[in-house]
Write a structure and sequence with these properties.
mainly beta, globular, Ubiquitin-like (UB roll), single chain
Length: 79
């Protein structure tokens, strides 16, 4: 099934090669979780992440569905 993955800031380097923006359309198996998707992109598990699926906060156990949009942000600081 096809999904959209958006990585931001320092995480962009983990998108599939040939990606020319921060967004890629990729195919994943049915039943794929957010955590397994992140693992497949080789994003280190020790990096803290904020994950949204279709604009709603998600966790590693969240199951991805066809045409979902997954956004992954590194930690942000502000003041």
């Amino acid at each position: 099934m096809d999904i959209e993955i958006k990585l931001f800031f320092d995480l962009i380097k983990y998108l599939p090669s040939g990606t020319d923006s921060n967004t890629a359309r990729i195919s994943v198996a049915e039943g794929t979780t957010v955590g397994s998707l992140i693992d497949s992109l080789n994003i280190p598990s020790e990096i803290q992440k904020t994950i949204l699926v279709n604009g709603v906060k998600a966790c590693n156990e969240t199951i991805i569905n066809e045409n979902d949009s997954i956004a992954v942000f590194p930690p942000m600081a502000g003041g």
